[in-house]
Design brief:
alpha+beta; 6-stranded mixed sheet; disordered N terminus; 24 strands; Purple Acid Phosphatase, chain A, domain 2; 7 helices; Immunoglobulin-like; 7-stranded mixed sheet; single chain
């Protein structure tokens, strides 16, 4: 696969501020203390057709202005203005850019205008490549699990370096597969890790305890944006966000019982606050469904790729033994949406971005002594599909019936990397065609695994890499992201699993059928 021109993918950035380019003079001459501030950088996301979302945040009531051009000197910029950003949204703002030319380098600059004085902030610059309409090489990356198990921004090692490793791959976009924050994971000043080595963290008040209030949830996102690697990555790589459990609390479901760290004991109250904060900070297009809170969606990236972004949290029933009759996981509406979307997709490849794996057992304590409670789809029983597995069985049988091929599942969640091949010849449930699932992560968190496979759908471990010690620190190196390359001419899809430094640890080529 050819490398995209490096010069087209680099954006001039100054840590904590922008750089004033020709053609952008302040509307009002003001001292630095009077200007709105932009300390969290910019993000783009959810590219769709000729549109893209742009996000940023300021420190006072202001309107965000985004100007874009196909040249970095902004000789002919198009201008878009957000609604008022104020305390109701934690001073976050987003706009949808429109009219983007097909498959072009798009440079954008963002600044805020004070709602009272009209004074402008310094600008911050970003870059993206718009969606193609013709076949061409595509590269994207995915992973999950940011700032988990108390491992935060460590200045001794240069912060969250894996984001820089991903940026250097020059991807068209990034799928964050969930656990974008660890709202239930305080970040202490230091941790003792393998061999007595000390891990030091940058700390903030919001990360000193579990998140319960809306502002504490917001503070978790602000913490991640303190990292220069993250801000640089966000400015250059469009995002597709999912959420999972740690955006609220570990393994949450409607039946979650909160521990003694929580003064707020109502899980539904915490979910509502967490969802609001997630939607405020995610660079995604807000949808009208579910009162503007729907997360699952489809994003098309030319004739070679459709991405189906799932929400495996919002519609599930309570975590339990996951046996017996069908139990909601995706929920009927999302399951039907996914079936029809895959059936009618014209793209060569259909990537299902799942926030949890299909065949790995993810335990969640016990329902009663000796009876395990399950967090994900699998239930530890290798026999016929039961419980949540019945939704997956219905989906896979539907895809076989309608000859929907070339679907690949990408996920994270379990804090190690793996490649799983599912085949009916090895399965108890056999009404499906073979497919692949690839697992990446964590991005900056403790490493775990490997988890046990549930044989209901016939998975086989083709590759896995997990730490020798559970909850190994990022020092140990078991941090992973995945990369997908689609060759424009042949349609061949290659999946590469990479480590903290971007070194490939596994590669698999798939031919379209």
């Amino acid at each position: 696969m050819s490398e995209f021109n490096l010069g087209r993918r680099r954006v001039i950035q100054v840590a904590g501020a922008g750089l004033l380019l020709p053609g952008l003079a302040p509307a009002v001459i003001a001292s630095p203390k009077d200007r709105p501030k932009m300390v969290d950088g910019v993000q783009s996301g959810d590219l769709l057709g000729d549109r893209a979302m742009v996000w940023s945040r300021t420190d006072r009531p202001a309107r965000m202005v985004v100007e874009w051009d196909t040249r970095s000197r902004f000789g002919n910029p198009r201008r878009f203005v957000s609604q008022l950003a104020d305390a109701r949204t934690d001073f976050t703002a987003r706009v949808e850019l429109g009219g983007l030319p097909t498959d072009q380098a798009i440079f954008y600059r963002v600044y805020f205008e004070d709602a009272r004085t009209g004074v402008r902030s310094k600008p911050w610059f970003g870059h993206l490549r718009s969606v193609p309409q013709a076949r061409r090489d595509i590269r994207f990356v995915w992973s999950g699990d940011t700032v988990g198990q108390g491992f935060g921004i460590n200045p001794d090692i240069g912060g969250m370096r894996i984001y820089e490793a991903m940026r250097r791959r020059l991807p068209d976009f990034f799928i964050h597969s969930g656990d974008t924050i660890y709202a239930d994971g305080p970040v202490p000043a230091q941790l003792t890790t393998e061999g007595g080595r000390i891990w030091r963290n940058i700390t903030t008040e919001a990360k000193s305890k579990v998140a319960e209030t809306l502002d504490e949830y917001r503070g978790n996102y602000r913490y991640n944006l303190l990292d220069e690697n993250v801000r640089r990555f966000n400015a250059e790589v469009p995002q597709i966000w999912q959420w999972d459990d740690h955006e609220v609390v570990n393994n949450w479901s409607p039946s979650k019982v909160l521990d003694e760290r929580y003064t707020e004991k109502n899980i539904h109250t915490l979910v509502a606050r967490a969802r609001q904060a997630w939607l405020e900070y995610a660079p995604m297009r807000l949808q009208s469904a579910d009162q503007g809170g729907r997360i699952y969606r489809k994003l098309s990236y030319g004739p070679l790729l459709d991405v189906f972004v799932l929400d495996m949290r919002s519609y599930r029933g309570g975590n339990d033994d996951n046996l017996g009759a069908a139990k909601p996981f995706l929920g009927r509406e999302q399951l039907d949406w996914l079936k029809q979307g895959l059936k009618h997709s014209k793209a060569q490849w259909k990537v299902v971005a799942a926030d949890m794996p299909i065949g790995l057992g993810v335990p969640d304590g016990e329902v009663s002594p000796g009876v395990p409670r399950w967090e994900a789809i699998a239930n530890g029983d290798p026999g016929p599909a039961q419980g949540r597995e019945l939704e997956i069985a219905e989906l896979l049988a539907f895809l076989r019936k309608h000859k929907v091929r070339n679907h690949v599942w990408l996920t994270a969640d379990v804090h190690y990397c793996a490649a799983h091949h599912y085949h009916p010849d090895r399965a108890a449930f056999q009404d499906f065609e073979p497919f692949w699932e690839f697992v990446a992560g964590p991005l900056n968190a403790g490493s775990f695994g490997p988890n046990a496979l549930d044989k209901t759908f016939g998975p086989e471990v083709v590759f896995q890499k997990a730490p020798p010690t559970q909850n190994s620190s990022p020092f140990a190196g078991f941090q992973f992201f995945g990369e997908v390359q689609i060759e424009g001419q042949s349609g061949e899809l290659t999946v590469i699993l990479r480590d903290l430094d971007g070194v490939a640890v596994f590669e698999r080529k798939l031919q379209p059928v």
